[in-house]
Amino acid sequence: MILQFINRKTELDALEKAYRSPRSEFFVIYGRRRIGKTELMKRFTEKKSHFYFLAKKQNLELEREAFQRRFAEKFNIYMEESPTFEMLFKQILSKIDLKKKLVIVIDEFPYWIEREESVISEFQYLWDELLKEKNIFLILCGSYVSIMEEKVLSKNSPLYGRRTGQLEVEPMKIKHLQDFLPKYRTEELINTYGAMGTVPFYLKEMDDSQSFLENIRNTFFNKANILNQEAIFLLTEELREVNVYFNILKAILDGATTITEISSRSRVDITNIHKYIATLIGLKLVKRIKPITSSAKEKQYLLKIEDNYFRFWLTYIYPNQSEIEEDPDSLIKLVEKSYSSYMGFIFEDICRAIVRNFHTGVATLGLEVGQWWYKDAEIDLIAVNHQTQEILFGECKWKDKVDAFKVLAELKEKTKLVQWNNTYRKEHYVIFAKSFQEKIKEKDLTLLDLRDIGTYLKT
Predict the structure, then answer these.
(1) Which residue segment(s) compose the domain that 152 sits in?
(2) Is there a domain that residue 4 lies in?
(3) Dihedral of CA 384/385/388/392: which sign?
(4) Distance between CA atoms of 346 and 339, rounded to whole angstroms?
(5) Residue 454 CA, distance from chain mean position
(6) Residues 144 and 200 occupy one common structural domain
(7) According to DSSP H, which parts of 102-225 are helical?
(8) Which whole number is the average pLDDT over 353-376?
(9) SS3 sequence, 361-381?
(10) What are phi and psi of 256, to 5 degrees?
(11) Residue 276: enclosing H or E segment and its boundaries?
(12) For residues 245 and 276, is the Cβ–Cβ distance under 8 A?
């Protein structure tokens, strides 16, 4: 398919507004790999005077030399050797006509930080002493989210207070899947989300003239396609000890949710497991979740795979590498047979993401949405509104012909265990499913099937 540039209007508008300002600008842009940061910057810098530099994991002196060489080539100027970034940028300012604002983009800036953390202080000096009074738009960009947040954006960073703007480039909304795959029905769109989320780099591999399973056969189960080995490539690019990280991810996928369980199943010493988990969280591959009713001080949380591409790859590709070459059709049959079960948790995520867009009787302004568990009891979806003292309980069933009476009765039993504003709360209920045996009507109950979800996806 031809990849469209979809749903980045807010980010582009913010960048364009800053570009038109009379002052110099310093933006920090970050977000997980493949999310579309580079394409965003290409669109923004198109037809503008700009210089884009993609950092590498190598000696910073070599990086500075490469930066200087490519800048000189791009603008067809002579530049003397610069042993420091200060001297390099002084040359740039002296040799470039700045009547029009010059955009300088340094992509994957965390690579430089990992090599020499002092580079942060160097760029603080560059901004304070050289750039902030010039007609410059400096953009530092990175995929390692935790490094960008801790080393560049936090109060402890030398760069704190210098930036004039920041953008976290987040995944597309689920409803934008239809923009990428206009021929797909609702169920196929949701199945696609389960395999690759809303990452444009992955969605461009899909052909909506083919079925979901045909696409899986031609991408994930095709050794020549990027989706077959993308997970290995991404972790190899970012990390050492790749196999350790895969073992941790697989342990989480297989049901280990606490640090102790993950350590045991992945065979990683409990004293080291925290640093690996922190890295995976920083890369937006794993996330911590807490019951929505728990207080901020409570440390009770579980760990889950955050990235749907990795979830699918670890489920169907990682354990079946040899079968992909020998008998890919048998793996397609495996996907077809097990995919409804695989989609269970993912459908819950979808329901939690879109519950605000349906009328369930709960005021949406100030609504907090999450999930809940206590001992052996779990509720897929809980949304609370502290202002109106309303609470919405929900179950999400990726099944056809769901018995709404039975699900509602079981849900009401579990709600008795939920400790939240028990004396005054107003309770509402919602059940999501592919379809229902009967769309029953009860006070404070909303039933939403694929037709309802499809309406949201197509708005």
Answers:
(1) 9-168
(2) no
(3) negative
(4) 11
(5) 23
(6) no
(7) 110-115, 119-125, 145-147, 177-180, 186-196, 200-203, 212-218
(8) 90
(9) CCCCCCCEEEEEEECCEEEEE
(10) -75, 120
(11) helix 270-282
(12) yes
pLDDT digits (tens, 9 = 90+) for 39-57: 899 999 999 999 999 999 8
Question: Which helix (H) or strand (E) covers residue 64, if one does?
Answer: helix 60-75
Match 């949405």 to its residue by tokens.
Answer: 369
Q: Report the chain's mean pLDDT, rounded to a whole number.
A: 92
3-state SS assignment for residue 198: coil
Whole-Å CA distances, 11 to 27, 41, 49, 169 = 12, 10, 19, 8
Q: State the amino acid at position 222 in one-letter form.
A: N
Q: Count of domains in the chain?
A: 3
Segment 415-421 shows an average pLDDT of 94
pLDDT (tens digit per residue) in 136-189? 999 999 988 888 988 999 999 999 999 999 999 988 888 889 989 999 999 999
Residue 213 neighbours by CB under 8 Å, 6+ apart: 332, 335, 336
Length of the chain: 459
Contact by Cβ (8 Å): 192, 208: no
Of 318, 352, 386, the residue that ends a domain is 352
CA 30/CA 38 separation, integer angstroms: 10
Residues 287 and 171 sit within 8 Å (Cβ to Cβ) = no
Q: Which DSSP string corresponds to 87-150? A: HHHHHHHHHS--SSPEEEEEETTHHHHHH-TTHHHHHHHIIIIIITTSSEEEEEEES-HHHIII
End-to-end CA distance of the chain: 22
Entry pTM: 0.86
Rounded-to-integer distance, Cα 413 and Cα 189, Å: 33
Q: How many CB atoms lie within 10 A of CB 124?
A: 16
Tracing tokens 């010493």 back to the chain, one arrives at: 269
Whether residues 128 and 228 fall in one domain:
no
β-bridge mates for residue 104, sequence order? 51, 138
Return the H-helix or E-strand segment holding 244: helix 242-253
Same domain flag for 187 and 136: no
